[in-house]
């Protein structure tokens, strides 16, 4: 991991530096907030900031937010004054560490940041096949596409590939393409020059340059705007980037790993994803099965999370009872590993007695996880609702509205008045919509049409 120490407590921070380096961290120093920002803009990056509490931490937090730099801050100081610690936390620090530094405390903080729930735990044969393929291609520089439902562990697998590559000692930089607004994503990826746009107060090195020599993870790449995809394609093909507002191309040496929870072949057909970019990224596809298709992994992961959160919360490690195991293995886990982890975190906190029993396997609102799961009608309705919801993802509101109107009209055998009443719109609005669709070449059900034959009128 990369640690940036900010402050002038040289003797104390030197000790912290030594401890950090002994724990595998790469350490950079900055004397004040301004120098820290220059380091971060300059492409060295950081996974954690250790900041002297005597500095203006609130100012640093505001500077980071203004430039969309996301990195946790841990404050440190030689004073044991509780008010200083509270002020640092209120200013935006995640934690406060007193100096001189305790080696075990520094090591624990670094381990928490470096680990960040990224353990690769598996037992099921379906997942073993994916891991075997990942091991085979990890040593190459081939681009990798990791696909799977949300919560299956795509970023965990990406980090695993990086850790087994020749670039393992170089940076692993991740950017979530779905979490950053479209107008900012280009600058985040490629950086910008001072004055390139309103708010560009200084040159900023983007993720491509920050990851130089290492691996860049483009998380949820399917959410990237198609216009930006063309610039990404050039960067991958030619290994050069253009900063926003820049005049010279900048060479980069990185490996690209991308993830998506959508079917990108469908996105290509819809026109929301470039086919040539898909070919460039999808040299190797690691497809992670959903947790419900990896039954042997459920208990393995459950026991792993039970150990993890027992230790984190300083509570005794309890075994999982047979009844609790049955509930865990029969649940569908629509949220996959992420949902299972949260469930086991709750179970560790709620368990009483010598085991983690069924009464500790709860939903977030405190209900037993297995309540109602045995009712076929409820399960069928839940599955149907999930399928309908997934069918809507990736489509525009206009497309969904058009299909709803036409299907309703078809259901009403072409009767405009009945369809308008069901849809809750005026007949005039309905007619305007139908005229719009007809002008676009979409077939409109005529009066008397539909899948269900009309009943003859009584004589």
Automatic annotation (TrEMBL):
Origin: domain of life: Bacteria
UniProt domain Sigma-54 factor interaction: residue ranges: 120-349
Kinase as UniProt keyword: no
InterPro entries: AAA+_ATPase, AAA_lid_NorR, CheY-like_superfamily, Homeodomain-like_sf, HTH_Fis, P-loop_NTPase, Sig_transdc_resp-reg_receiver, Sigma_54_int
SMART domains assigned to the protein according to its UniProt record, in alphabetical order: AAA, REC
Domain Response regulatory positions: 2-114
SUPFAM superfamilies to which the protein is assigned, alphabetical: CheY-like, Homeodomain-like, P-loop containing nucleoside triphosphate hydrolases
Pfam families referenced in this protein's UniProt entry, alphabetically: AAA_lid_14, HTH_8, Sigma54_activat
Residues bearing the modification 4-aspartylphosphate: 52
Record's keyword terms, sorted: Activator, ATP-binding, Cell projection, Cilium, DNA-binding, Flagellum, Nucleotide-binding, Phosphoprotein, Transcription, Transcription regulation, Two-component regulatory system
Region feature (Disordered): 439-459
GO biological process entries: phosphorelay signal transduction system; regulation of DNA-templated transcription
PROSITE patterns: RESPONSE_REGULATORY, SIGMA54_INTERACT_1, SIGMA54_INTERACT_2, SIGMA54_INTERACT_3, SIGMA54_INTERACT_4
A GO MF label: ATP binding
Official protein name in the record: Two-component flagellar sigma 54 dependent transcriptional regulator, Fis family
Origin organism lineage: Bacteria, Pseudomonadati, Pseudomonadota, Alphaproteobacteria, Hyphomicrobiales
